[in-house]
TrEMBL record:
<keyword id="KW-0560">Oxidoreductase</keyword>
<dbReference type="InterPro" id="IPR018211">
    <property type="entry name" value="ADH_Fe_CS"/>
</dbReference>
<feature type="domain" description="Alcohol dehydrogenase iron-type/glycerol dehydrogenase GldA">
    <location>
        <begin position="10"/>
        <end position="177"/>
    </location>
</feature>
<dbReference type="GO" id="GO:0008912">
    <property type="term" value="F:lactaldehyde reductase activity"/>
</dbReference>
<dbReference type="InterPro" id="IPR013460">
    <property type="entry name" value="Lactal_redase"/>
</dbReference>
<feature type="domain" description="Fe-containing alcohol dehydrogenase-like C-terminal">
    <location>
        <begin position="190"/>
        <end position="381"/>
    </location>
</feature>
<dbReference type="Pfam" id="PF25137">
    <property type="entry name" value="ADH_Fe_C"/>
</dbReference>
<dbReference type="InterPro" id="IPR001670">
    <property type="entry name" value="ADH_Fe/GldA"/>
</dbReference>
<protein>
    <submittedName>
        <fullName>Lactaldehyde reductase</fullName>
        <ecNumber>1.1.1.77</ecNumber>
    </submittedName>
</protein>
<dbReference type="Pfam" id="PF00465">
    <property type="entry name" value="Fe-ADH"/>
</dbReference>
<dbReference type="InterPro" id="IPR039697">
    <property type="entry name" value="Alcohol_dehydrogenase_Fe"/>
</dbReference>
<dbReference type="InterPro" id="IPR056798">
    <property type="entry name" value="ADH_Fe_C"/>
</dbReference>
Length: 383
């Protein structure tokens, strides 16, 4: 039995860290950049903070911003065609998970054209070549896509979101600059922060968890618990802590997997275009309660990381309940929705959602084995 860890070659952190991008481009010998972002970020000038640096150094680039949340296959294909026409030799992803994941798919297909249908990248794809080099600049404190080997694409036609797992997709450089995240509206900060908390909790309890990934996940849980509210309310120090915490969670979960919360959140994105973090926030505490008996001492550790008073001395049954209650209170206090109705879910879809969640790549990592019927009951419990 061996364990594998894969991280970026280089990562820069801190307010103002985007100033390192010109140096990275120059020292790596790149000649032209293809920037993958989205329209909101271009219109609000967030993307421009980076492209201005490229202008200042006289570095040629093109911008592709035709990416929408829960990014569809079509956004990948249009971006791929534009990238190949551009003659660029480096990709710069600027955005939340949606532009980052689109950027990864473009980079992977460009060097592995046999996967040009996109759908065949689902799961662990047998690509032979590393992606076109990617410099990833997150604008949300959530997905950690800048340091993960995963990307998630939506098949609109078949109403499916699919997860691709490929070490070849990891960005070579991550630039985690909290100032790139500060313009996000409160609800987005809450949702993406709950995505990060879900990564940390699912990563800590997933089947593949081990000593090294545990370090990252516990640190991430504690830091998110103490800084998400402040970050949501615009405090710059807390925003910087969240930027780091979500990355730390990514260093862990990318290497060990997730669980049923993500398995159940993905179909909600595919069916209703629900924001990924909102869906996770609704499901996290109920799925934790479902998993509790299959987690050994781990929920006690989570309760301690969440600063539940006396958690170290509780019986294990009480410690597990305390961890679930703490997460439930945390998500409620942040104002995340708590029911599927609030994100437009329809009763008649629940059986199809349950089957899709059962089939999702992430569900295999869940600490407790689960049936389609149990997933359906869980969806009902939060409907
Ligand atoms: N690759 C991975 O490892 C991984 C992990 C988790 C989730 N994901 C995927 O990532 C996607 C979700 O990404 P996300 O939650 O970061 O959101 P997102 O990228 O979908 O963006 C959501 C909205 O927020 C806006 N936005 C982003 N940053 C902003 C900022 N700084 N200021 C103002 N507006 C801003 C965007 O323009 C967009 O309209 C989902 O598809 C999810 O499945 C990927
Ligand atoms: Fe996620």
């Amino acid at each position: 039995m061996s364990n594998r860890m894969i991280w970026n070659q280089t990562a820069h952190f801190g307010a103002g860290a985007i100033a390192e991008i010109p140096g990275e481009l120059a020292s790596r010998g790149f000649a032209k950049a293809f920037v993958v972002s989205d329209k909101v970020l271009v219109d609000t000038g967030v993307t421009g903070r980076v492209t201005r640096l490229l202008d200042d150094m006289g570095f040629p680039f093109e911008v592709y911003s035709d990416v929408t949340p829960n990014p569809p296959i079509e956004a990948v294909l249009r971006g791929l065609a534009a990238f190949e026409a551009s003659g660029a030799d480096v990709l710069i992803g600027i955005g939340g998970g949606s532009p980052q994941d689109t950027c990864k798919a473009i980079g992977i297909i460009s060097t592995n054209p046999e996967f040009a249908d996109v759908r065949s990248l689902e799961g662990v794809a047998a690509t032979k070549n590393p992606s076109v080099p990617i410099i990833a600049v997150p604008t949300t404190a959530g997905t950690a896509s800048e340091t993960t080997i995963n990307y998630v694409i939506t098949d609109v036609e078949r109403q499916r979101k699919f997860v691709c797992v490929d070490p070849h997709a990891i960005p070579v450089v991550a630039v985690v600059d909290s100032e790139m995240m500060s313009s996000a509206p409160r609800s987005l900060k809450v949702a993406t922060g709950l995505d990060a908390l879900t990564h940390a909790i699912e990563g800590y309890t997933t089947k593949g968890a081990w000593e090294l990934s545990d370090l990252f996940h516990l640190k991430a849980i504690a830091t998110i618990a103490e800084s998400l509210l402040g970050a949501a309310n615009g405090d710059p120090v807390a925003t910087e802590r969240m930027a780091l915490a979500q990355y730390i969670a990514g260093m862990g979960y990318s290497n060990v997997g997730l669980g049923l919360v993500h398995g159940m959140a993905h179909p909600l994105g595919a069916f209703y275009n629900a924001p990924h973090g909102v869906a996770n926030g609704i499901l996290l505490a109920p799925v934790m309660a479902f998993n509790a008996d299959a987690t050994g001492e781990r929920f006690r550790d989570i309760a301690v990381a969440l600063r539940v008073e006396g958690a170290a001395d509780l019986s294990i049954a009480d410690a597990r309940m305390a961890a679930v209650a703490a997460v439930s209170a945390f998500t409620r206090d942040l104002g995340n929705p708590t029911t599927l109705r609030e994100i437009g879910a329809k009763e008649e879809d629940l059986p199809a959602l349950a089957q899709a969640a059962f089939d999702d790549v992430c569900t295999g990592g869940n600490p407790r084995e689960v049936t389609v019927e149990q997933i359906l009951a869980l969806y009902w419990s939060v409907y």
